[in-house]
Design brief:
By secondary structure, the chain is of the alpha/beta class. Helices cover 43% and strands 13% of the residues. Helix 6 runs parallel beside helix 7. The termini are far apart.
Length: 506
């Protein structure tokens, strides 16, 4: 047997950690072996990568000396040899082992020593993979890691890799996405006004990819926003050691098996859930119909009130929940509709699948985008797409307008307008008023839907730099409001608005 992806800091047993703590003369949160094992073990209900990566924090505390790194590599080789492995590649990030006095060079050198001793004493072959880390401010550290990989290549090191939470530090760029101009535009509007957005399209159309690029067009956090998020993560016990403040806008992406409690928060001693951990950031729900309906329904109140209330016998706990919901779904269970040559779903199956998302929840989503399969011509095209930096510039300009408009309010973005403030801040001309009245009468537009159309139009006008909302802004807002409602939407009709609806995009 072989293992090509073996984490050094994720493969240590409690005995190893206790011994290294003694070697380093440091105190651990506990010294009981069973309790230590429980702290190291990943929960079977782990819902995201961030939660998984938290288990690496404790082992890293004892891996800050050359002696401990050498010992850890040696003992790991002893363990895997006893399990019958004949070849392993051990991954570790040298920059994470420099919190005391070590340099990256010293950390790698110690790991190589442990590697050579282990491969000599045990009948096993092994090499090291050095990991760079995803971060917004560690370019110098990553450059040093690359230099170390070159220095030790062929002398214990075989490769270099990139590690860390991709959702928190995306490497993608809007320029990397072929075609999908309507989806990109929808994402730009959503980012500018912090609107909720739902993408519906076949598997492989790029929904998840573009969602993960969204943080690249969002503005940085204000100091006040950073403080809010830091408080939430501190209460949740997710603030990293030596981390005084969170500076990156949250991007949470729980798995569809996440429970209602994990999503909303709770427990014996209530802690914030994914909804609150996404405060001032993004909550991305991929494969939306696969989520438990009860879990989805807990979002209705937070989406409206921007806070989560958890009731207990001894009192109520209120956590902030001002998040931007980004969701994606296939149009049918097999994911191939509307390609009738590939789709195996019956009409009834399609209806049942989309009915898993309740109408009240859909009503709280501002922007709907019907994502088409990328055209072959777009894949081969040489036309340069806009970069994230170019789109972000427009988003920042639109958000600056909003912050100035709402300087006397407790909020900053158009999506946060309630009914009373919508009337106060959004005024339509006579032509625009007549247009929205006709739509209201024709489509059975709800009061909530009416207000959301106005808010989207206001954001589009801000992106356009227009003080007034014009007909073209309303048309685009209506287009994105109705585009992929299918049969489960607000109108209650068998209707799917495509390109050219309401005179937009034709």
């Amino acid at each position: 047997m072989i293992d090509l992806h073996l984490h050094l800091d994720g493969s240590l047993n409690p005995d190893n950690i206790l011994h290294m703590a003694d070697m380093s003369k440091i105190s651990l949160p506990c010294e009981d072996k069973d309790e230590l094992y429980r702290q190291l073990k990943v929960s079977p209900y782990c819902s995201n990568l961030s939660e998984y990566l938290e288990k690496f924090v404790l082992p890293l505390q004892v891996l800050q000396t050359g002696e401990c790194i050498e010992y850890a590599v040696y003992e790991l080789l002893r363990d895997v040899y006893s399990q019958g492995l004949c070849y392993v590649e051990i991954r570790f990030a040298p920059q994470l082992h420099t919190k005391a006095h070590l340099t990256q060079d010293e950390a790698v050198s110690a790991a190589v020593k442990g590697l050579k001793r282990g491969t000599t004493d045990f009948d096993i072959k092994a090499q090291l993979i050095l990991c760079c880390m995803r971060n917004n401010s560690n370019h110098k550290e990553n450059e040093e890691t690359v230099r170390m990989a070159l220095k030790y290549l062929g002398n214990g090191v075989c490769a270099i890799d990139l590690a860390g939470n991709e959702a928190a530090y995306p490497t993608g760029d809007f320029a990397d996405i072929k075609g999908q101009e309507i989806l990109k535009r929808g994402m730009e509007i959503a980012a500018a006004g912090m609107h909720n957005i739902l993408m519906t399209g076949p598997a492989g159309s790029g929904k998840s990819m573009i969602a993960k690029c969204l943080p690249t067009i969002l503005p940085g956090l204000s100091f006040e926003e950073s403080i809010e998020i830091t408080k939430i993560y501190s209460v949740a016990g997710l603030l990293k050691k030596n981390q005084s403040i969170i500076t990156g806008r949250p991007f949470r992406s729980p798995h569809h098996t996440v429970s209602a409690i994990a999503l909303a928060g709770g427990g014996t001693i209530p802690k914030p859930g994914e909804i609150s951990l996404s405060h001032n950031g993004v909550l991305f729900l991929d494969e939306l119909p696969e989520f438990n309906r009860n879990a989805l329904e807990v979002m209705r109140q937070p989406l409206e009130d921007r806070e989560v209330t958890i009731a207990r016998i001894h009192g109520k706990y209120v956590y902030p929940a001002g998040f931007m919901l980004v969701a994606a779904r296939n149009p049918c269970p097999c994911g191939m509709y509307p390609d009738l040559n590939k789709c195996t779903c019956s009409y009834r199956q399609i209806r049942q699948y989309n009915a898993k998302i309740s109408r009240p929840l859909l009503d709280r989503i501002d922007i709907n985008v019907n994502v088409q399969k990328v055209a072959y011509e777009d894949l081969l095209g040489t036309k340069k797409a806009e970069t994230s930096a170019q789109i972000r510039k427009r988003v920042l300009a639109a958000q600056k307008i909003q912050r100035e408009r709402y300087r006397s309010e407790s909020f900053h973005f158009n999506s946060q307008l309630d009914g009373r403030r919508t009337q106060k801040y959004i005024k339509l001309g006579s032509a625009e008023e007549a247009m929205i009245r006709d739509v209201f009468e024709e489509t059975d537009l709800s009061a909530r839907g009416y207000n959301r159309v106005l808010k989207i139009a206001r954001t589009i006008a801000d992106l356009d730099g227009s003080p007034e909302i014009r007909e073209i802004h309303l048309k685009e807002a209506l287009f994105f409001r109705y585009q992929n409602l299918l049969e489960d939407g607000e109108t209650g009709r068998n209707r799917s608005y495509g390109k050219g609806a309401f005179g937009y995009g034709s």
